[in-house]
Each structure stands twice: as structure tokens, then as C-alpha cells.
Amino acid sequence: MSARPLLALLDALPATDGAGVELLRAIGQPALMELDPFLLLDAFRSDQPEDYIAGFPDHPHRGFETVTYLLEGRMRHRDSAGHEGVIEPGGLQWMSAGSGVVHSEMPEQRNGLLQGFQLWINLPARHKMDPPAYQEFSAEQIPQERRPGTVIRVIAGKTRNGTRGPIEQTLTDPLYFDVELEPGIRFEESLPAGHNAFLFGIDGSLELPAEQEPLTRDRLAVLGSEGDFHARAGDTGARFLLVAGKPLGEPVVRGGPFVMNTQEEIHQAFEDYRSGRMGRMATVA
Ligand code: MN
Fold first, then answer.
1. Closest alpha carbon to 75 in 66, 88, 57
2. Which residues pair with 248 in a beta bridge?
3. What is the pLDDT of residues 52-66, one digit of tens each?
4. Please, what is the Cα angle at 28 between 269 and 111, to 5 degrees?
5. Domains of the chain, with CATH numbers?
6. pTM of the model
């Protein structure tokens, strides 16, 4: 099968979100507002507490999923339904906000390195008002597939050798791999036909077919939706996210933390949030 073409290679842009967290936005920026079904990809990596300590205090979501994958540091999550937990290094939280949650995401550390990603994945219209749901996995629960010079952490989807990630999500059938390659190692993977796909550089450099410029840290590569994925690590090796999902092809209307199909549904979301119908955070004594 032919290789997936590279459609675009772009830098993540500095952004501030939450109560003042400094991050890099790769999807959800002017050059790439969305890559159906992906609505946003933020990367954060800092050992300066002032960049992250303010965290993401109480805020709502409706209509999509938030996927938080931590490489370093710890984040505490609390929501209005009483759900609470800490994401540890290498751990993952896959939250389907559905009809709505109010939650907080705060660093569980006062210093040291905090590094990770948050990806927003859209939900189809008929599932936007489903009850909220969580899937959470520690580093030990995420399967690692090893090939020569290669480690693949399989969070969602299935590799061509059959390693399957723990995430169950049939609506957009996502694939989410964290791939590490030693210098010069070639990597080939099958991706579901018709899925939109992207790469995000974590470390090193990755040479892409028919491309002069390699994928490097904090850059995003948008791939075509057909064909296999081929790449080769540069002389310092490569680490990157490889993510794919089935496009929904539905209208996307954003209103801050809500993503729906119509402006009326956005108004309703704000109204439901204001009136407490998405829940309220318990007061911490
Ligand atoms: Mn959130």
C-alpha cells in the first residue's frame, strides 16, 4: 500500500489557558482549527512552577472527550459528580464529557517537571448528550509493543502486530500511540482507511517520506487519510505521538468549553451550566 502523504507540517503556538498555564497549542490554532474529529491538542512541558502552578480550576465541558496523557509530573482531577483521582507519570485519563461535567485539573506538585498532552476529540451529534464517562489507566496498564529499536505505548487502537490499547471508543474509533525509535530505525504502521491522522514531535527528529524537513519537538504533521504510515528516526532517535480518528463530517460550533452542532445548543449549554444543571463543585473546606 502507498504511503500516507504529508499534508502539512506546522509549529505548535504558545498559548495561555486555565488560570494561567503556559502551553503550546498544536490543533485549535489559526493554521489548524480542527482536524475532524480532533478539536484541540495542547502540549505542556515546564520545570518552572509559575508556568503551571495555577492549573485549570473549576470549569465545565459538554459535547466532546478530553484525553490527558502525562509523561512527567502529577495532575489531580476532581469533578462535580464526586469523581476524583491523580494522573501519574505515563498515565492516562480519557473523559467523555457528554452532556456535561464541571471539573478541575490541578498540578499535584509545587516544583519539578510537568509534561504531557491534552487532546479534545469530538463526539457525534447523537452522543453529545450521553452521560459523562471516564476511562483511566496507569503507565503499567498501557501495553508496550517492542520491535527492534522501537517501543510503542498503545493507548488506543491496534498495531499491525495486534497489540491493542485499553481504550474502548467505537464512535470515532481512535488510534493513539506514543512511539520511541532509536537512531535510524524505520517505522511502518497500518492506519485505518479514511481516518484523519497526525503526528506530534516529542523528542529527536523523524524523517517523513518525500519531505525535506523532519518532524521535530513541538511540531505537528498532518497526514492524509489513506495509506500506510512510513517514517525513519534521525540520528538522535525520535519520540512522537501518532494519532488517528474517524472524521464525523458534522457541523462544529464552539463556545469556549462547549462544542456542539448549532449555536442554539451552545446557548443551551451556557444556560445549563449557569443554572447548575451540569452539576456544581463541592466546596473544599
Ligand atoms: Mn477540562
1. 88
2. none
3. 999 999 999 999 999
4. 95
5. 6-274 (2.60.120.10)
6. 0.96
